[in-house]
Amino acid sequence: MATKEKTIQLLDRHTAQKPVIHPIRVMQFGGGNFLRAFCDWMFDVLNKTTAFNGSVAVVKPTETGDYTALREQNGLFTVALDGIKNGKTVSEVTLVESISTIIQPYTEWDKYLALAGLPELRFIVSNTTEAGIQFSENDKITDCPPKEFPAKLTLWLYHRYSYFNGDKDKGCILLPCELIEDNGEALKETVIQYAKHWQIKQEFIDWILNCNHFCSTLVDRIVSGYPTDRAPFLEEKTGFKDKLLVAGEEYHSWVIKANALVQKELPFSKTDLNVQFVDNLHDYREMKVRILNGAHTSLVPVGYLAGLRTVKESMDNEVVSNHIFQILATEIKPTLTKFSSNEIDAFIDAVVDRFKNPTLQHFLIAISLNSTSKFQSRLLPAFKDYNQLHGSFPKRIAFSLASLIRFYKGSFNGEVIAVTDDKLVLNFFENQWKMVENKSQSVTDLVAHTLANKTIVGEDLTKYKGLVDFIAKSITAIDEYGVEECLRKNRKLI
C-alpha cells in the first residue's frame, strides 16, 4: 500500500490551526533569530506548562524592514534545537506560538503607544545590540518615533504613566538582553537621562525608579539561524513551509538579577528551563567568561596549530580536548571561589557538551578574531588568581599563550594563517617574527618583548618567574614536535 505524502503548507495560524489565545503581556523590542529562539521560545514554554497566559507584541526597533515574514506567518515559527546533554544527543523541534502582534513604530506609532494602555502588559524584553542602549541629544519628545530604542521606551513609559494616572501597580518588569554588563542599570539610567533631557516632571521619574523593575540579565545560547541544509527535512517533519525556521543549540541559560516579586511573576521555577534568579550577576558573568569564553580562547591556537579547523574536530581529538578540560578543571576552577564545586563542574560539563555539538560548525579561525584582547579579558584574570593561589603560573594556560604567540606568526607548516586583530597588534608580531627569522633576536627575546607589551597581554607578564623561558621552550617544541606531541606526558612541558 502506497504511503500518502505529507502536504507542505505555508505556516500561519490558519493552516496550523493555532488561534491567539493569550492576552499581550510582553512587549519585545526586536524579532531577530536570537530573541525568537530564546525569549519567545521560553514564553511559549511558560504558556504551555504554567498559568503564565501571555503573548508577545514584537516592536521593530529600527526604521528599515517590517518583519514581513513574521506578519505573514501571524507570529508563528519553528525552532529546531540540537546538542549533547549528559553525553547523549538530543534533538527537539517546536512550533512557537507566543508572538501575537507585530508593530513597526515608524509607520504604526499610534498602535505602538496603544500598547501602553493594556493593563495586563507587564514585561518588556529587548535585544537591540550592544550599541542599542545609548542616549542621543538629537531625539526629541515630539518625535514619532525618536531614533534610539531607550527614547522610544521612555515615551512609551510616559504614555503608560499618563494613561493610568501614575498608578503604582502599572509599572513594568524590564529584561534587557543586550550583551553589556549591568544592562538593566544601563537601560534605567538612559531612560532617566531622556526624562530629564525632555524636562518631564519629577513625579514620572519617581514612578520609573520606584514602580518599575529594571533587571540586569545574562543570556547564553548559540542560535545559528535558518538551517538551509536541514530545512527540507524539517519541513517534511512539521508539514509546513516556514520562512522563519531557526536552529540553535539545546543548551540555554538566562541569569536574571531580580527580587522575589519578579521571580513570582515569571514562573520559570515551574519549568525545566535553565533560568536562574540571583542577587549578584557579576559572579555568574565571571564564571561564564572564564570557563566558556576562556575555553574558546585557550582552544583556538592549540587546535589550529594541531591541524584542526573546528571546535567539534578539536574536541574529538583526545589530546587537545584533554588539554582544554585540564585548563578548566585544574587551572580555572580553583579561581572561582564564589561557587560550589558541583556548580562549577556542572558548568564545565555543559561547556564540553556544547563544544561537542555535531550540528554546529564553529570554525577556529572565525573565533580567533582579536585573540589578544580576548586573552586579556578571559584568561589573564584566572592566570593571575591561579598564581596567587599556588605561587606558580598555570602551565596549561601558559602553553595556550605560547600557541597564541606562535599562531600570530601568520603561518605554520607552510600554510598561511589568516590572523585578524588590531593593526598595531599585527604589526608588532610581524616585526617581532621577522627579527627572529633574520636572526637579529631569539625566540626568547620575542617572548620577552611580547610579555612586556601591555597592549598585547594586558600587563607586564615578565614578572612571573620562569614564564618567559617556559613559553619560549614551548614555541620551539611546537615547531619541532607539533602541538599534540608537546601535550603528551613524555614531553613533560605541562
Task: For this entry, give a set of tags.
494 residues, alpha/beta, 4-stranded mixed sheet, 20 helices, globular
Please provide a brief summary of the model.
With about 500 residues, the chain is α/β, with parallel strands linked by helices. It is about 45% helix and about 15% strand.
Folded structure, characterized:
- This protein has 494 residues and is α/β, with parallel strands linked by helices.
- It is built from 20 helices and 17 strands.
- It is globular, with a radius of gyration of 26 Å.
How many runs of DSSP E, i.e. beta strands? 17
User: Strand count, sense and closure of the main sheet?
Assistant: 6 strands, parallel
The average pLDDT value, as a whole number, equals 95
Counted by DSSP, the helix tally is: 20
Taken as a percent bin, the fraction of beta residues is 5-15%
Backbone structural class: alpha/beta
User: Any low-confidence stretches, pLDDT <50, length ≥5?
Assistant: none
Give the CA-CA distance, first to last residue: 65 Å
**Which of globular, elongated, flat, extended, rod-shaped describes the shape?**
globular
What percent of the residues sit in helical stretches (DSSP H or I)?
40-55%
Rg from alpha-carbon coordinates: 26 Å
Strand arrangement within the widest β-sheet reads 6-3-2-7-8-9
